[in-house]
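Predict the 3D structure for this chain.
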Amino acid sequence: MLFGKKEPPSRSELIAEADRARSKGNLKKAIAGYRKALELEPKDPIVHGKLAPLLARVNEPEASLQSFRAAAQGHLDKGFSDKALAVYTQAAETFPAQVNLWQQVVQMYLARGHRADAVRMLLRGRIYLRHKNERREAITLLKEALELDPTLFEPRLDLARLLAKQGQRAEAMALLEPMVGELQGGMLRRVRETMLRISPSPGTWWRWFRAVLLGR
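Done. Predicted structure below.
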């Protein structure tokens, strides 16, 4: 080695420098540092977990998804299922239209016997999907939530409205009609009102009006 020649930075030094760049908001430098560290250990789940959200912020979605998945798989390979679940949850929230990510989270909860948490995540995913071009994904998540818990009231109304907006009025009405014989009071009136908006006919208008008059 020539006198005075600097040693290349170690992997830990690359990560530390990238961490400092990230804390200062220098995303480009942080990304470069994490990528260099991954050249030395390509499957490191911790580094992939740090890199993935940064790539999403600089509009590199495919690379970001690859790092999210690498991070989750790396944790699973080491037996850290809780960490893998946290990574998949972060990935789903970063890319909410990627339904398969929400489904992955749901399957992990179901594998643990946590049905309520699985339903909660499906409904959480739906909250992110508010644009017209995301209706299909929202419908998918709502249908899966109702399969796990058919008693959900608000999600059923939500699903019916989305189906109607997608031109699937018959399916929307079929979803609501069984509720008429099961509910009373304010909940029944809301179902009637939703049916009226979905299919505004004299029949549905009269049933809604009668329900209002009779208070049921």
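The chain is about 75% helix and 0% strand.
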